[in-house]
C-alpha cells in the first residue's frame, strides 16, 4: 500500500507537498532516536553532579517527544504516512547508537553535545531545502531548532571554562 | 470617517502598512464566517459517530475565534479600522453559506474539508503577497495556516481509506 | 430536508415543542450578531479610557457565545435544526449592522446601550410567550436576561451622572 | 420512628412542606437507579464506537449523582427523611432493571433513550404538581430536567438520521 | 439627589422597575446584617464541638456576601441606588442585633436557626410580591432562598433528634 | 446471551479467568450497595456532631464508587459482563438494607461499623481465594481493603474510649 | 456574662492581655464599617471611568474583610469576646455613615480618601499604644497599616496632578 | 565497562539483585518499543472513527513511557545499567516491527490487540519468575500488568460483539 | 569540628550573630518536638468528636514543620550549624514526652493547651532577648508566636464555656 | 491504660492483628527518625554541589513523613496505640543519632547511604515476617520499600563511578 | 578575557554566529532599559485614569523581561557573553533616560509611544540585517516585534481620536 | 517639577514622611541594580555545576524585582516620586558594575556574596535610621533583609567547607 495519499495541503502541488513530507521523515527518526538516547543518559549518568544533570534532561525529553509528534502529524497533513517504528529507524538512520552506558556527568554531556551538533546541522539543512516551497514546514523546523540550540547551550555551559573553551 | 489612521507600525511607510492591513480584512471575514459555520456543524451533526465529531469541533472553534482576534488587532496596529460585522461580511465575501443543515458526520466532514481547502489557499496567497513587506504579519498568517492545515488533516483522516484516498 | 425532527422533548407534544424551538431561532441569531458586534467594538474603541472598555467587553463576549450555544442546543433538543450561519442571520434579522467604526469609548457605549435595549426587550417577549408551555426554555431565557441586564448596567454606569441621567 | 420531622421550611405549612418532600422521594429513587444503569451501560457497551460512548456517559453519571444529592437534601430540608437504599428503591419503583447486558453502542443508546423518556416525563409531572406551592423545589427540578433533556439529545443525535428520524 | 435614575430595565415601565428595586433594599440590608452576625458567631462560639461549627460558617458567609452583591447590583440595574451602609441598615431594619456573645455551639445554632426563619419568610414574601412583574428578580430570590434553606437544614440537623424534633 | 466472552486476560486459561471474574461480581454488588448506604447515612444523620460526620462520609463515597468501577472493569477485562443493576443487586445479595433512617451520629457510626466488618471479611476471603491464580486481581482487592479498613478505623475512633473499647 | 475570659496569651498578665484586646475592638468596628462603605461605593459609582474604579475596590474589600477576621480572632486569642454586630458598631463608632450615594468616580475617590485618613491615623495610634506590651498585636496592626496606606496611594493617584497636589 | 555495579538493594545478595535486574531489561525494551508503536498507530489511523481512536492512544502512551522509566530506574536501583537505545532494542527483541502503516481503525486495533497479548504474557511470566525473590519488583510488574490489561480491554471492546466474540 | 562558622550576617559582629543563633537552637528543638507530639495526638485521639480534632491538627503540624525549617535556616544564615536530631533534642530539652496515649478529645486538647503555654512563654522570652540586636530574627519569632497563639485559641475554644472559663 | 484495643481488623484474630501492629512500631520510629535526620542534613550540607543536594532531600522528607503517617494509622487500624514521641523513639531505637553536622555533600550522601541500608534491611525483614498473615500491611511496606530503594539509588548515583563502584 | 567562545551554533561559521550575537547586544540593552522605564512609568503615573494605565503596564513588563532573557540566552547560545549590567547599558545606549517623572496618564502614554517607535524601528532593522544568515534569531526578533507593535497599538488607542489621529 | 507631593501618609508630618521616602531611593536603586546583576550572572555562569546555580538565581531575581516594586510604591505612598531609571541609577550609586563576565560557578558565587554583603549592610543601616519614625517602612525593610540574608546563606553554603570557612 502506498505511503502517499491522493492529496496534500491546499496551495501546493501534490508532488511538492509529498517531497516536503519525505524530507521530514529522517527528522522524525532523529527526534525519536534522540528521546530514547536522552532517557538512556538520564538513567545512566552518575557522579557528584548526578541530580542536576538527571533532572535537566527530563523537560528536554518532553520537548523532543513533542517535536516528533509535530513532524509526524505534519507528514500526515502533507499526505505521506509517517513511520515511527524502531526497526525502520535503525535501518534508515545514518548514525549509530548513543555511545555511553553508565558514566559520569561530564562524559555524558560531551556525548550529548556531539549528538546535538549532528542533529542541528541536519535540521538547518532541511530548513534551507524546504524553506522555498513550504513556509509552514520551515517555520516548524525553525522553532524546533531554536529549542535544540538552546538546550545545546545548557549542555555546553557545563563543559565550558571562563574563556569559552569546551573542555 | 476614514478607516485609515494617520500612522502605521514603525519601519513601514504609512501606505505600505495600510496596504498590508487591507489585505487582512478578507482573512478576518473568513475567520469570522468559519467560526459560525463550525458551530453550526457542531449543532447539526447526527449519526453513530456523533459524539467524537461534535467534540472535535469545539477546540478548533476556540482557535479560529482567536485567529479573528489576532487579525483584527493586527489591522488596528497597522492603522486600519477592522470590520467584524455580519452584514459587512456577507456583502463582501466571495463564497456562500455553509451548505449543510442536519446531516450525518461524514456529510459534514466532507463539507468542512471543502471549506478548509478554500480558506487555506487564500491564506497561502496572502502569505505570498505580504511576506516581502511585513515579516510580522507574514509570521502571523503562517502560524494560523499551520493550525488550519493540521485540523484539515483531522477532518481528512475521517474520510480517507488505508490507501490515502478521500472517499 | 425538513428542519423538524420526528420527536421533541418528553412531556410536550411534537407540535408544541417545535413551536418553542422556532421561537428560539431569532434569539440565536441575535446572540450570534451580538458576539460579532461586541468584538467589533472591542477592536475599534479609542480614546483615553480605551483599556478599561476594551477589557470589559471580552468576558461579556464569552458569555454571549455561551448563550448562542445554549439556545442552539436547546433547539436541537426540542427537535428543530438550528441555523447559525451568517447569510441566514443577515437575511432574517430585523435590525441592521452595528453603526460605529473607530470611535471613542462613550460613543461606543451609547451604541451598545441601544443594542442591548432591543435585545432585552425581545428576550422578555420570548419569556412571556414560551413561559406557559415550557418552563425549561423559560428558565434558560430568564438566566440569559439577568446577565444581559447586568451588563447593560455596566454600560449605563459609564453614561450616567450622579442624578441617574444617561448623558 | 416517623420519617417526618416537626418542622418544614419557613413560609410553608408543615403539611404542605412534607407533601412536597414526599413527591420528591420517587424522583430520588429514579436518580439513584439511573446512575447505576448508566454505569452498567458504561461497562457493558462494545463495538467500533466503544470509546466515544463509554466516555460520554461518565460526566452524565456525575451529574445524576449530584441530582440525587440535591433531591435528598431538599427532602431533609423540607423535614422528611429521604431513603437512598437499594431494597427500598427496588420495592417501590414502577419500572424494572435496565434491559441490556453486553451489547453494541446503538443497542445501548436506544435503551438509554427509552429510560430518559420515562424519567423526563415524570420530572415534568412533578414540576407541574409542585410548582404552585414551592418555587424552590420547582426550580431545582427544572434545572435537572434541562440537563436530562440535553443529554437525551446527545443520545438521540447518535440514533437520528439527516431527516431527524430515530432509527 | 434622587436615588432613582431616569431609566430601568427594558421591558418594564420605569415605575414598575423602581418598585421592584425598592422591594429589594430590605433584602439587601438583611444580607448585610446576616454576614456580620454569622462572622460574629464564628468568632464567639466555644465548647467541645467548636471546630466543626466554626468552619461550617465560613462558606455560608461567603455565599451571603455574594447575595448582598447580587441584590445591590440588581437594584442598580433596575435604576435605584442601593444603600449598603451600617447606619442606614440599623435605622431601617425591623429586627435587633444578634442576641449571643461568647456561647457554646448549641446556643449559637439555636439563635442562628431563629435568624434564618425570619429571613427566609421575608425572602419568600418578596418572591410572591415580585414574581408577577419581574421573573429575573424572582429567579434571583428563589436561588438565594434555596441556599438559605439548605444551610438552615445544616443548622437544624445539629439540633434535631432521631424523631425529627428540634431540641 | 452469554455473560462470558470468548477470551480472558493473556496468561490465564479462559476458565480460570472467568472464575476470577465471577468471584468479583458479589464484591461489585457490595460496593454499589455500600455507596448507596453511605449516602443514605450522609443525608439522615442528625445531632450535635452532625457536620463532622456528614462531611467525613463524602470522600469515602467517592472512593467506594471508584472501587465499584475498578471491579466492574476488571470483570470486563477478564471476559465476563459485570452487572451493576439495582434489581440484580437486591436479588443476589446475602444481606439486607442498611438498618437506620434519621438517627444521631453515634447510632449511624455503630451501624456503619457493622457494615464494614461484613464487607472487609468478604474482601479478605476473596483475596485468599483469588490470590493464587491472579496476582493482578489480588492486588486490586488488597488496595481496596486497605482503604476500607482505614475508614473503619475512622468510624471506630468515634466509638472507642481511651481504653480501646467500642462503646 | 462577662466578655473577658479567665485567661490571656502566655507571657502577658491577664490584665495586660485584656487591655490590648479592648484596644482592638474599635479597630474591628472600623474594618467592618469600611468593608460595607467600600462595597456601597462599588455599587454607586458612575461616570466614564466607572469600570476601573468599580473593579479596583473589590480586592481591597477582600483584604479589609480579612483584617476584621484577624482583629476579632486576635481579641478572642487574648481572652476577650469580640463584637462584630451592626447595632453595636453604630452605637460605638465615633464617625457617621459614608457620605455619598450615586456619584461620579472622583467624588467617591475624594470621600474614600477622607475615610482612609481617619482610619490610618487611628491604626497608627493603636500601634503606638500597644507596641510596648504586645509585639504580636503590634505586628498585626503594622501589616494592616501598610496595606491600607498602599491602597490610599491608589486612591490619591487618581486625584493627584503632576505636581503632587490633590485636586 | 561492566554493566553491573558492586552493589544491589539491601536485603538481597548482589547476585540475586543483578539477576532480577537482568530479567527487567527485556521488559524495558518491550515498553520502549510499545510507546513507539502506539504513537505510530496514533499517526497512521484513518476512517470514520478516527478521532476516538486517535485520542484514546495518547494517555496510554504516557503511561507506557512511565513504565519504561520505572523499569529502567528499578534496574539502576538493583545495580545494573539499563539500556534504552534503539539499536540495542532492535538487536535483542524477539519480535518484529508493528505490521501496519496507514490503515483504518479496526485494522489497527486488531494489530494492537495482538501486540498486547504478547507483552502481557511476558509480563506475567516475569512476575512468576521474580516474585519469589523480590516483592518490590514483583509489585511494580503487577501494577503495570493491571494497566496493560485494562487498556487491552478498551481495545477488545471495539472488536467485540454482544456475544463477547472478537471479530 | 566547630559548629560556628567564620562569618555571620552582614551588619552584626560575628560574636553577636552567633549568640542570636545559639538562642534559636532550643526554639528549634521545641518545634521539632511539637510536630512529633501533635502527630502523636492526631493518631491517638478517640471519641465522638474524633474527626474534627483529628483534622484540625494537620494544618498546624504543617505550619510547625515550616517553623522548624525557618529557625534552622536562620541559624545557618547566622553562621551556626543547627541540630535537628532526636537524640540531641531529648538530651537537651527541659521538658518530657507528651503525656497522653489513646485518649478522648478533651483530654488531648487539655494536654496540648499546656504544651502551648510553655512553648509560647519561651518564644516570647526569646523575642525579648533577641529583639534589641537582630530585628530580622525577632520578626521571625513574632510571626511564629502569632500563629502559635492563634492555634492555642482554637484549642482553648473547645475547652471554654460561655463564661470564658477553661473546663 | 493498655495500648491494645478490644478489636482488630475484620478477618484477623485479635492476637494476630495486634502482633502485626507491634511489628510496625519500630518501623514508625525509624521513619520519624529518618525525617529528622534528612532535614538535619538538608540544613547542614555545604560545598559546590550544595543546591542540588539541598533541594533533592525535601521531596523525600515529605514522602517519609507520609510513611510515618501510614504506619501509625495502620497500627491504630489494627487496634494498637502508636507512639510517635521523641523520648520513646530514643529509648527504643537500636541505632544512634545521624553522625554528621556541617559537612560537604559527598560526606552527607555517604552517611545517608548507610542509614538507608539499615532501614531497608529492616523493612524487608518486616515484609517477610508480616506477609504471611496480613497482605494489607505487607503491601504497605512493599510500597514504602520501593520508594526508599529508589531514593537510595539517587544517593548512590552521586557516589558511584562509571564502573559502578561506590567511592 | 574574551567575550567570544571558541564555538557557535552548528551550521553557522564561528565568525557569522558571533556577528549575529553582537547584533543582539544592543537589542538586549534596549529591552533591559525598557523594563526599567515601564516600571518607572507604572509608579509615577497619576490622574483620573490612573488605575487602567497602571495595571496595563505590568503584563507588558513581564513580557519585555522575558524578551531580554531570550536575547541574552540566544547570545550565549551563539557563543558570545551577553552583558546585562546597568553601567554597560548606560555607556553604550544611543538614547537617554525616559523623560517623565510624576505626570498624568496621557503625558506618560505619549512618552511611551515615542520610546516604542524607536525600539521597533531598531528591531525591524536587526531583522533585515540578521534574516539572511540566521533564521532562528530572525524568528525570535519577529516574534518580539509582533508583541511590541501590539502593545504600541494599546498605547496609541488611548491617544487616537475617531479619525485615527494621535492627539 | 518637584518630586515631593503636598501630602504624606496620615500620622506622619509631611517633612518626616518625605525624609523616610528619600532614604528609600537608594535602596530602590540597589534592588534594580541587583536584579540586573543576578540576571547577568544567570546568563554568564559556566562549568560542571552550571545548571544548579543557573536555576537557583531565577526565584531570587523574581523576589528582588518584587522588592523594587515594594520600595517604589512605598515612596509614592509617602509622597515622593520614585526614580527607577538606569541613567539615574548609574549616576547616583556608590558602587560599580558587577565585576564578572563569563566565569565558572564558584567565581560568580564569590562575587555575588560580596554584592550581598554590601546591600544587606545598607538595608540594616536604613532599618536603624527609619525604625524610630515609621514602623511600616521599617517592617518592609526587615522582611526584605530576611530574604536577602537567607539567599546569601544559599550562596555561602556553596563556598563553605565543613569547618564553616568561606573558601
UniProtKB/TrEMBL annotation, chains A, B, C, D, E, F, G, H, I, J, K, L:
Residues 22-161 form the Ferritin/DPS domain. GO terms for molecular function: ferric iron binding; oxidoreductase activity, acting on metal ions. It comes from the Bacteria. Belongs to the Dps family. This is DNA starvation/stationary phase protection protein.
